[in-house]
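Quick one, probably user error.
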C-alpha cells in the first residue's frame, strides 16, 4: 500500500513500448498527471518488431493517429495473415488468416460443415473459404467490411511497419500532447529505504528524476522491474525452445505480398515481413541445435534481395515477469517478458498492458487489491497466448531433425493438451473470455498442422450432403468473384 497521490509518471525507455504507453497516457491523463519519458539515443532500441495483428487499428484510433499518416510515415504495408510453411510436415503450407472463414451457422462454426463435406469426398482446402487467404495469395487488398450483396464479413487486416519510424511518430505525437522527453542514460535506480519503492532514476549526467509511478520500458534489460526490484521470471523456455534471433533487412522485390511468412527450418523458423521500402527477415533458432554462424549463413542464403546491413544477433529467453506490476513499477514491453515473435503478439501485449494500466490507474495511491487484479489479468493473458504459440511447435510431424522430434515429445501445459484432445475428438474449440486468439485462429493452426477432427457437430446434419456441397460451391464462387474485383495491394496502399 502506498497512499500518496500519483502526480508524476516516469516512463523509462523510448522504444515501441515507451512511446505507445506515453501516447495513450497523454491522450487520456495529461490533465491529471505529469508524464516524463527518459530514453537514450546512444543505447537505441531493439530494432525489430514489424508485424502486428488487427487490434493495432484500435490503438491508432485511440491515440488519434489517422491511417493515411500512419501508413506514409511508418512505410507500412497490409497484413492479412501469417503463412506457415513446413510447420506440419516438410512441404506443408497453411495460413493463419485473420477474419472469418466460410459462413457461420447458429451455434456451429463453418469448419463442421467443411468436415462433413470432407467426410463425403470433398477435397477442397479449408482456406478455399477464407477471403483473407485468397486475397493474400493473389496480392490483393481493399477495405471491405462485408462481401458485396451479402452479410458475410469482409476483410480483416493489420499492418507490417517500421517499428523505429512508428516510435518516432508516436514520440512527436506524445510530445505535442504534453509529454516531456529527457535524453539520457539511466545508470542507477534509487529506492526508498522504508518500503522499497522506486524513488528516482539517476542519469549519467548527474540529473535525478523523481516520480510517483514508474513504467519500465527499458526492453530486455528490465532495469527497474528486475534490475532494481528483482521481481522474478516465469521461464517458458522448456516449451518455447528458441532462444536467439538473427535479423537483417533486404531490398524489396515484386510483388508486394500482404502477409507475413514464417518458414520452419531444421532448428527453428524464419520470418519474412514486406514493408514498402524493404523486407524484414530474421531467423529464430535454438542455440542448442544451431550456432550463430550457421544461422547467419542460412539467413543470408535465403533472402529475396540484397541485404541492407550486417545481420544482428538478439539473444532472448521466453517467459514473463512473475508480476507485471510490483510496488510502484509497471513493466510494459520486453521488460515484462517476451514471447517469440511467431504470432506477432508482443506489440499487442504492449497495447493491452498500457490500456490495462489506464483502466487501473492508481491516481489516489497504489492499492494492493488493484495490483493483484492487474497482475492476475496479465498472467491469464500471457498463459492463453503462450499455449497458442506452443501449439505450433508441439503439433509438428517433422522427422528430419532432433529439434522437431524433441518438440513432438515435449510435455505441454495441461490447458493445451485438453484443447488439442477436444478438437481431435469432436472438432470443438472454445475461446476463453478475453482470449486474444479466436476459435478460427485455433482451427487454422490445428487443421493446417494436420490435426483433423474425428467428428463434426451434428448441427452440420441440418443440411444434406448435396446442400453442403452446394454451399461450398457457392462460397467459393462468391470469394473468387470478390477477390477478382479487388485492386492489387500496392495500388490500394496509394489510395489509403
Ligand atoms: P526496446 O525497443 O529495446 O526499447 C528500450 C528502450 O529503453 C530504448 O529507448 C532504450 O534506449 C531505453 N533504455 C534501455 N536502457 C536504458 C538506460 N540505461 N537508460 C536510458 N534508456 C534506456 N513484436 C511484434 O509485435 N511483432 C513482431 O514482428 C516482433 N518481432 C520481434 C522479433 C524479435 C527477434 C524480437 C526480439 C522481438 C520482436 N517483437 C515483435 C517484439 C518487439 O520488438 C517489442 O515488443 C517492441 O519493439 C517493444 O520493445 P521495447 O520498447 O520494450 O524495448
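Nope, works fine. Designed sequence:
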Amino acid at each position: 500500500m502506498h497512499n500518496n497521490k500519483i502526480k508524476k509518471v516516469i516512463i523509462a525507455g523510448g522504444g515501441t513500448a515507451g512511446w505507445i504507453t506515453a501516447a495513450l497516457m497523454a491522450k487520456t491523463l495529461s490533465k491529471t498527471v505529469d508524464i516524463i519519458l527518459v530514453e537514450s539515443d546512444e543505447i537505441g532500441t531493439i530494432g525489430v518488431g514489424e508485424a502486428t495483428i488487427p487490434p493495432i487499428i484500435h490503438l491508432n484510433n485511440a491515440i488519434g493517429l489517422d491511417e493515411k499518416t500512419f501508413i506514409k510515415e511508418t512505410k507500412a504495408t497490409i497484413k492479412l495473415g501469417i503463412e506457415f510453411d513446413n510447420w506440419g510436415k516438410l512441404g506443408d503450407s497453411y495460413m493463419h488468416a485473420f477474419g472469418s472463414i466460410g459462413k457461420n451457422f447458429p451455434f456451429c462454426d463453418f469448419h463442421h460443415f467443411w468436415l462433413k463435406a470432407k467426410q463425403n469426398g470433398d477435397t477442397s482446402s479449408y482456406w478455399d473459404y477464407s477471403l483473407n487467404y485468397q486475397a493474400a495469395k493473389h496480392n490483393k487488398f481493399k477495405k471491405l467490411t462485408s462481401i458485396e450483396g451479402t452479410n458475410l464479413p469482409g476483410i480483416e487486416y493489420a499492418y507490417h511497419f517500421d517499428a523505429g519510424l512508428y516510435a518516432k511518430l508516436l514520440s512527436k505525437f506524445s510530445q505535442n500532447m504534453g509529454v516531456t522527453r529527457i535524453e539520457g542514460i539511466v545508470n542507477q535506480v534509487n529506492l526508498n529505504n522504508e518500503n522499497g519503492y522506486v524513488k528516482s532514476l539517476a542519469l549519467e549526467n548527474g540529473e535525478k528524476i523523481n516520480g510517483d509511478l514508474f513504467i519500465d520500458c527499458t526492453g530486455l534489460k528490465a532495469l527497474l522491474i528486475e534490475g532494481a526490484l528483482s521481481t522474478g521470471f516465469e521461464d517458458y523456455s522448456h516449451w518455447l525452445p528458441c532462444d536467439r534471433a538473427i535479423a537483417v533487412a533486404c531490398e524489396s522485390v515484386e510483388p508486394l505480398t500482404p502477409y507475413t511468412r514464417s518458414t520452419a527450418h531444421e532448428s527453428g523458423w524464419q520470418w519474412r515481413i514486406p514493408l514498402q521500402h524493404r523486407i524484414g527477415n530474421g531467423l529464430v533458432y535454438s542455440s542448442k541445435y544451431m550456432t550463430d554462424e550457421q544461422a547467419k549463413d542460412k539467413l543470408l542464403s535465403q533472402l529475396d534481395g540484397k541485404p541492407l546491413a550486417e545481420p544482428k544477433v538478439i539473444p532472448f529467453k521466453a517467459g514473463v515477469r512473475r508480476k507485471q506490476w510490483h510496488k510502484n513499477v509497471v513493466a510494459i514491453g520486453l521488460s515484462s517478458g517476451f514471447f517469440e515473435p511467431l504470432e506477432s503478439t508482443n506489440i499487442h501485449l504492449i497495447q493491452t498492458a498500457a490500456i490495462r494500466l489506464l483502466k487501473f490507474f492508481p491516481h489516489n495511491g497504489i492499492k494492493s487489491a488493484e495490483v493483484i487484479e492487474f497482475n492476475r489479468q496479465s498472467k491469464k493473458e500471457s498463459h492463453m497466448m503462450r499455449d497458442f504459440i506452443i501449439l505450433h511447435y508441439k503439433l509438428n510431424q517433422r522427422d528430419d531433425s532432433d529439434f522437431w522430434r524433441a518438440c513432438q515429445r515435449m510435455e505441454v501445459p495441461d490447458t493445451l493438451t485438453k484443447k488439442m484432445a477436444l478438437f481431435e475428438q469432436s472438432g470443438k474449440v472454445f475461446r476463453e473470455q478475453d482470449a486474444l486468439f479466436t476459435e478460427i485462429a485455433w482451427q487454422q493452426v490445428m487443421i493446417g498442422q494436420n490435426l483433423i477432427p474425428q467428428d463434426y457437430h451434428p448441427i452440420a446434419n441440418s443440411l444434406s450432403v448435396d446442400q453442403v456441397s452446394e454451399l461450398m460451391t457457392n462460397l467459393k464462387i462468391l470469394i473468387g468473384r470478390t477477390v477478382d474485383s479487388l485492386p492489387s495491394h500496392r495500388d490500394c496502399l496509394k489510395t489509403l
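Residues 8-77+161-236+318-384 form a domain with the FAD/NAD(P)-binding domain fold (CATH 3.50.50.60).
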